[in-house]
């Protein structure tokens, strides 16, 4: 069976709202309405219902000018099951045991083989792409299916990028930061192009990992 969190918010409109709030960290209804191309009242009704279900909370920001505080909606911890962490605690315990038994370098060697298998899977997914943009889009779709929360976009300033707001192995990366470089290299091998990985923060402090695709095919 699906987790209750998925059953409650399975409507596409609910998931779209949660996705925008995950990316932004908090938005007012007019902003959500514009981003989702939905009516103000429609978005408001959805947000009120999601608040009643416990998935959203209200955050009131004092206005600089005279008037009532601005009302923003933010995600609550009840949304966490929608963004799985890949069993981070269990994996860290297992890696600690591997390190104690086989030495400090053993966990990263083990994970190197994991990312090799991931790369082989990514290659099979993107191989049908005719251009680098199509391959990167297929790659992002595969990441989403694996529990990541990301999307592709193009901007004149940064070019074609993949923005990622959730990584199931984030806790593992914090404990073993060398894996960040390893995964980035595997992504480069998958796409056949140099990839620059940078960390950014949005206006509400939301962390975002940006993969810049340096060469377009």
Measure the end-to-end span.
42 Å
Strand content range = 15-25%
Question: Quick one: biggest sheet?
Answer: 4 strands, antiparallel
The 3D shape can be described as globular
What share of the residues lie within helices? 40-55%
Number of helices: 9
Kindly report the spatial arrangement of strands forming the biggest sheet.
3-4-6-5
State the total count of DSSP E strands: 6
What is the averaged pLDDT score? Answer: 85
Radius of gyration: 20 Å
Low-confidence stretches: none
Q: What's the helix-strand series?
A: HHHHEEHHHEEHHEE
Structural class: alpha+beta
Structure description:
The chain is globular and about 55 Å long. Helix 3 (29-36) crosses helix 4. The chain is of the alpha+beta class. It has helices spanning 4-8, 12-24, 29-36, 40-53, 88-102, 106-126, 132-145, 170-175, 178-191; strands at residues 56-61, 70-75, 149-155, 159-166, 195-201, 207-213. Strand 1 and strand 2 (70-75) form a beta hairpin.
């Amino acid at each position: 069976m699906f987790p209750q969190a998925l059953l409650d918010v399975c409507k596409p409109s609910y998931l779209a709202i949660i996705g925008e709030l995950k990316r932004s960290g908090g938005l007012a209804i007019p902003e959500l309405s514009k981003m989702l191309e939905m009516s103000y009242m429609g978005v408001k009704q959805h947000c009120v219902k999601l608040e009643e279900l416990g998935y959203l909370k209200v955050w009131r920001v004092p206005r600089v000018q005279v008037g009532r505080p601005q009302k923003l909606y933010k995600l609550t911890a009840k949304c966490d099951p929608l963004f799985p962490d890949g069993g981070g605690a269990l994996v860290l315990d297992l890696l600690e045991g591997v390190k104690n038994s086989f030495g400090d370098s053993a966990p990263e060697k083990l994970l190197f083989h994991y990312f090799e298998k991931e790369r082989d899977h990514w290659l099979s997914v993107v191989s049908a792409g005719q251009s680098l943009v199509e391959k990167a889009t297929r790659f992002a779709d595969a990441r989403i299916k694996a529990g990541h929360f990301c999307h592709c976009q193009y901007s004149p300033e940064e070019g074609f990028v993949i923005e990622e707001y959730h990584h199931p192995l984030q806790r593992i990366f914090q404990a073993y930061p060398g894996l960040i470089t390893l995964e980035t290299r595997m992504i480069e091998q998958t796409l056949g192009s140099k990839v620059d990985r940078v960390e950014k923060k949005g206006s509400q402090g939301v962390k975002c990992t940006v993969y810049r695709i340096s060469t377009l095919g």
